[in-house]
Amino acid sequence: MNSNRIEGRVALVTGGSRGIGAAVALRLAEQGADVALTYRQNAEQARQVARKIEGMGRRALAVPADGADEEALTGAVERTVGTLGRLDVLVNNAALFPSGPLADVDTAELGRVLAVNVRAPFVLARAAAAHLPEGGRIIGIGSNIADRVPFPGLALYAMTKTAMVGLTKGLARELGPRGITVNLVHPGPTDTDANPADGPNAPAISGITALGRYADPAEIAAVVAHLAGPEAGYVTGAVIAADGGFSA
């Protein structure tokens, strides 16, 4: 019997229609949770994930929400609670991946990336905290780039993911007295449509990891699922690298 199941709990996963977010949503459903997921554009992909969750006998909810829209984000939290009855786990996964020379980053791009990668996790955590019970979980998806920047052109992305470290530690202190844990997972290179393991840069990126390969999204989801369960009840304020030894 799996002692880390989260039967009867409700999770909200941002950016849950594809990649790591979809893998997390499905894994939490496998662990027993009902799952709401947000998406920005591809409603059909989100519905496909929701149908898979329902196929496991769990309830699912797909909510459109642009990460730069504060009202939409708080609305996603409220809709999750209103439809699924509660909120126990928030997974802040949705993010933009900007890359390019510093001189090419204009004010508009800077503002949007900061809004989606930094402001949105704060806004969602603030909204979720009003509903999370004792034993609640907030789990952020960061990046190995916060620990090691191997190539030029990643300054903006690295800055935003480093901000997630401070947010995690600050929230852990603030919410700890309520029995709510807050942790951050730093994935390494992961095989998604945005960063495929057979892409042109993949050999160089894989070569930096100790394991010499990309992660499967399910491997990242397994770490998140552990943090969401009762067995990780004494883990908080932690930054956990699931990066194949990229930062070793």
Keywords:
7 helices, 7-stranded parallel sheet, alpha/beta, 248 residues, Rossmann fold, 7 strands
Report on the architecture of this protein.
Helix 2 (43-55) links the parallel strand 2 and strand 3 (60-64). The model has no long low-confidence stretch (mean pLDDT 97). The chain has one domain (10-242): Rossmann fold, CATH 3.40.50. 42% of the residues lie in helices and 14% in strands. 46% of the residues are buried. It has seven helices and seven strands. The chain has a seven-stranded parallel beta sheet with strand order 3-2-1-4-5-6-7, with helices on both faces. The longest helix has 23 residues, at 107-129. The protein has 248 residues and is α/β, with parallel strands linked by helices. It starts with 9 loop residues before the first strand and ends in a 6-residue tail after the last strand. InterPro entries: KR_dom, NAD(P)-bd_dom_sf, Sc_DH/Rdtase_CS, SDR_fam. Pfam families: adh_short_C2. Keywords: Oxidoreductase. This is 3-oxoacyl-[acyl-carrier protein] reductase. One of its GO terms (molecular function) is oxidoreductase activity.
Global morphology? globular
Q: What name goes with the CATH superfamily? A: NAD(P)-binding Rossmann-like Domain
Structural class: alpha/beta
Write the H/E string, N to C: EHEHEHEHEHEHHE
Strand order of the largest sheet: 3-2-1-4-5-6-7
Strand content: 5-15%
Could you tell me the CATH topology label: Rossmann fold
**Rg on CA atoms, Å:** 17 Å
CATH secondary-structure class = Alpha Beta
Number of strands: 7
Please summarize the sheet with the most strands. 7 strands, parallel
Contiguous runs where pLDDT drops below 50 for at least 5 residues: none
What's the CATH architecture name?
3-Layer(aba) Sandwich
| Number of contiguous helices | 7
Total domains: 1
Give the averaged pLDDT, no decimals: 97
The rounded distance between the terminal residues' Cα atoms is: 34 Å
